[in-house]
Amino acid sequence: MNDIPIIDTHIHLFDPTRPQGIPWPPKNNAKLYRPALPPRYKSLAVPLGIKGAIEVECSAWLEDNQWVLDVAASDPIMVGTIGSLEVGTPEFRGQLERFARNPLFRGIRHGNLWGRNLAASVGKPEFISDLKALAQAGLVLDTANPDLALIEAIVKLSDKVPSLRIVIDHLPKITLPPAGPALDAYRANLREIHQRPQIYVKMSAVLREDNGRIPQDLAFYRPRLDEIWEIFGEDRIVYGSDWPNSDQVGEYHEVLAIVRAYFATKTRAQAEKYFWKNSVAAYRWVKRDPSQPS
User: Fold this and answer.
1) Which of 65, 122, 165, 194 could tie 83 with a disulfide, CB 3.0–4.6 Å?
2) What percentage of the chain has pLDDT greater than the value 70?
3) Does residue 282 contact residue 238 with C-beta atoms inside 8 Å?
4) Beta bridge pairs of residue 17
5) Residue 293 domain-assigned?
6) Number of structural domains found in the chain
């Protein structure tokens, strides 16, 4: 199935050589602190069958939304970007209107990031009102850094804004509690999310450390991937690499190899949904190159 085209729904773009610098990654991260721009990404991803990518914000600076849009516009491999706007503030509606004019702007990210907390915000009327505006604009909410409270908050948010498409980023990396009430509540919330077809899950950030090493065999990761598959099925999961953040656990080809091995056990139709078709439903991204599937 290595001939299936792939849309990578989770990469980051940044350039620490800019005069203004960057808020992330920090200078002391030797693995990440260098330019991460489309030409470098393409050199790794295109030979592996990636046809398009969606950038996900890694900066809370307002004007970095525009910087990413300008960078993305310069290379047709970029089919969209998920920006960073502060929901629940007086400035949000104007900022949303500004960036939503650009067809590459596919939504925003909010969660456990930049001092923002979805679980703490979901009860605020102004927060919900702004996310209703996001939904009315046909845009997506990605959620950052999953934990048990975030998963519970997603259920509450979906109750309040049922038309909002939500993408849960990096669910395989969540830290799970031991068997008991907390784990039961988490799984109950996942089953509740399963009932909401407008919520998608990224089977991304799969590689993780185990006793000081990063396993490269599918057997280590399969139980968690199986749980996500069994709950959400073939229509609700999407591929994302988390490049270049993923460099901290493995090279791009290693990140892709694990999920390719997993989907080698599925049908071709199911693999196509994961690697690109579901991303169309979730993000409604913009086709910019003839090689990109549609």
Assistant:
1) 65
2) 100
3) yes
4) none
5) no
6) 1
Euclidean distance between CA atoms 240 and 256, whole angstroms: 9
Instruction: Give every CB contact of residue 223 below 8 A, 6+ residues apart in sequence.
Output: none
HSE-CB of 131 using CA atoms within 13 angstroms: 29
- Single out the residue of 42, 47, 34 nearest to residue 11, CA to CA: 42
Q: Are 68 and 62 in contact (CB under 8 A)?
A: no
What H or E segment, with its residue span, contains residue 245? none
pLDDT at 89 over 80: yes
Quick one: how far is CA 209 from the chain centroid? 20
pLDDT, residue 1, reads: 73
Please list the residues that pair with 80 across neighbouring strands: 54
Place of tokens 């002391």: 28
CATH number, residue 244: 3.20.20.140
Q: What is the largest CA-CA distance in the chain?
A: 51
pLDDT digits (tens, 9 = 90+) for 109-120: 999 999 999 999
Short-list 218, 203, 150, 148, CA closest to 172: 203
How many residues does the structure list for the chain?
294
The pTM of this model reads 0.97
- Interval 219-229 mean pLDDT: 95
Confidence of residue 151 (pLDDT cuts 50, 70, 90): very high
How far apart are alpha carbons 138 and 48 in whole angstroms? 31
Q: Which two tokens stand for residue 239?
A: 């591929």
Tokens of 172: 């395989």
Q: Which two tokens mark 38?
A: 């489309």
Asked whether residue 65 is domain-assigned, the answer is yes
